[in-house]
Amino acid sequence: MTKVCRKHENKPAIIYGQCIGCEVEKLREVERLARTFANAKGRYHSQQAMCDLLHHFGKPCVRPSNEEPKIAPEAWMYQHEETGQIGFVDQWQIDNGFEKHNPRLHVICPLYRHPPS
Fold it and tell me: Is pLDDT of 28 > 80?
């Protein structure tokens, strides 16, 4: 007979020579990490949750940082609040009052020629 771990001696359940209780706990941890990833709000938090999930499986992942990028954006993506239409403007337009003159257009994110390092 196969031995079970100390944690599950009181209620052993053995299948394929492994303690099923330990296997269930591992699956619950994967489920928790997957739910955290699925429910993450925003790109930063979803990338952190994805890295937690990949780390659990021993896969490499580069975590995003809170630091500001060292290079300036080339352009900005904006979205119209009613229609949802997406467009792009360059940095000069942002510097010269784009948001003030277009109150229904909301700047979404910066765009870079190369990924910020």
Answer: yes
